[in-house]
Automatic annotation (TrEMBL):
Belongs to the GGGP/HepGP synthase family. Group II subfamily. It catalyses: sn-glycerol 1-phosphate + (2E,6E,10E)-geranylgeranyl diphosphate = sn-3-O-(geranylgeranyl)glycerol 1-phosphate + diphosphate. SUPFAM superfamilies: FMN-linked oxidoreductases (SSF51395). The keyword Transferase applies. This is Geranylgeranylglyceryl phosphate synthase. GO terms for cellular component: cytoplasm. It is an enzyme of class 2 (transferase). InterPro entries: GGGP/HepGP_synthase_sf, GGGP_HepGP_synthase, GGGP_synth. Sn-glycerol 1-phosphate binds at residues 169-175, 200-201, 222-223. NCBIfam families: GGGP, GGGP-family, PRK04169.1-2.
């Protein structure tokens, strides 16, 4: 978290690759890892809405051995916790009103988390309407916020900050048709003082840069890299990200 805060205060931008364990085959991970190492990514997020497989520990161990990037869990539920990661985005789905995702899963995760040394990063998570129903909406059974509800999104994010969240994550959903609107990113970024993560449906350099320009501190790329591991070669991002990467690697 300290590194993320330092990046924010130095106006350095961060880029995370999201890996969904359900879609990865351990046997054929080598080429993917080599693409990760060539990419400008500064962080790896591991998780998905519905993963219930058993190879999470092995996957994270491999990533830790073969990359130098911090690995953060991005869990859909408490079964997706691995002690092998560096930290966990401890999510609260603040845009929804489903108590399971506001507090129940968090309580159930405690006995597991207490047996690990994971850095626990409290994260307010806001699901934003993105054109069609996403897995997060289906699994969490919550309604996303309307795309034009800018002030309310900012107010929720600020409530998260007041409640002690250390990060806010604006999420359009994996594979979303439309990513989070730039106006919403800026409205939220202006209102909060904690770092802002933006993800869901971002699939071009233009969209990455737009999110950074609007005020995102970290952008998350999942589907675009999953579908094409050459994504970052074709979509070289800001040199700011690359500089930050070398700093994180040296930390
Ligand atoms: C999903 O924000 C992430 O939780 C990434 O979304 O798969 O659309 O890049 P994509």
């Amino acid at each position: 978290y300290k590194t993320i805060l330092e990046a924010k205060s130095g106006n350095q931008k961060l880029l995370a690759i999201l890996l969904d364990p359900d879609k990865l085959d351990l046997e054929s991970l080598e080429p993917l890892i080599s693409k990760i190492n060539q990419s400008p990514a500064t962080h790896l997020l591991v998780g998905g809405s519905s993963f219930s497989g058993t190879h999470l520990d092995e996957l994270i161990l491999l990533l830790k051995q073969k990359t130098t990037l911090p690995v953060l869990l991005f869990p859909g539920n408490p079964s997706q916790i691995s002690a092998e990661a560096d930290g966990i985005l401890f999510l609260q789905l603040l845009s929804g009103r489903n108590p399971e995702y506001l507090i129940e899963h968090q309580i159930n995760a405690v006995p597991v988390l207490e047996k690990t040394e994971l850095e626990i990063i409290s994260t307010g998570y806001l699901l934003i309407e993105s054109g069609s129903k996403t897995a997060v909406e289906r699994v969490s059974q919550t309604k996303p916020l309307a795309r034009n509800n800018l002030n309310y999104a900012a107010q929720i994010a600020k409530a998260g900050e007041f409640m002690g969240n250390k990060l806010i994550y604006l999420e359009a959903g994996s594979g979303a048709q439309k990513s989070v609107p730039s106006e919403m990113i800026s409205r939220v970024a202006e209102r909060i003082t904690i770092p802002l993560i933006v993800g869901g449906g971002i699939r071009s350099k233009g969209a990455i840069d737009d999110a950074f320009r609007a005020g995102a501190d970290m952008v998350v790329i999942g589907t675009a890299f999953e579908n094409d591991t050459g994504f970052f070669e074709k979509n070289v991002t800001d040199s700011q990200v690359l500089n930050q990467k070398s700093q994180i690697k040296n930390a």
